[in-house]
Fold Peptidase S1 domain-containing protein.
Amino acid sequence: MVHQVRLDELADQIVIEAAGEAERLAAAAIRATGIKPRVTVSRTGPAQQSRRSDTAPFYGGLAIWAGSTGSPSTANAYCTTGFRMTRGGTNSNWVTTAGHCGTNGDEFWHPGGWALRVSSDYESLGTDVAMLAPLGDVYFSRHSWFGERNTSTANPVSGKNTDWPAVGSGLYISGANGGLVYGRVTSINGNCGGERMVTVDTDTGHAQDGATLGGDSGAPVTRWNTATSATNDLAAVGSHSCGNSVDTSWFVPIHRVEAATGAVVVVGGN
């Protein structure tokens, strides 16, 4: 059930995208080639699921549209969901997006018959992030969609940055419209909307000519989690805020997201 084999230029690593058990597939590849690949597992089920047509538990990097109801659409998403969050270790049924996507009470829908509402918007307090809460029996996952606009591949978030990322480090922005965009940090003193943010050169991207698009706001920014032996685990780096649609993007680092919201990224469990 191998879907694609490619070269991850940022990590200088062979990537195998497949449906199945990642550990067994990686072991087989090592036996055959002597090279340790990175394996990403496509989400499977009775119907193919993707960032644009998902069912619970809902992943980060998901396409959402403004309003409380709607029907399946091929149109560009309004914004993108980010990371599952918990506050006080008791309530973890939130997910982030960009603060400029809406104010408290604004609602969004997703094909699949569910909706969510902005419960806390922190943009007015100086951080471009908002917390979304579900309407009805909806719950989120620590997994993040990781691929093109219509991807069905997702990876678990099992770690997080605790400070500003290093200049020159590689990362991935997974937006609902632009898909997976690769980039390298060029500055931690960038500015977007008057807020200090991380600046990323996305000219090395492989989706939409390396540019983030409108509707990618709130997208999870991640890197490979090198603290685990798993081949496909991600670490949370930040929340995408804006881009120039050519070769530069900006995001709020995850430690600033946590400080603003009083919540932390969920890195364990489902």
Notes: The longest helix spans residues 22-33. The longest strand covers residues 179-192.
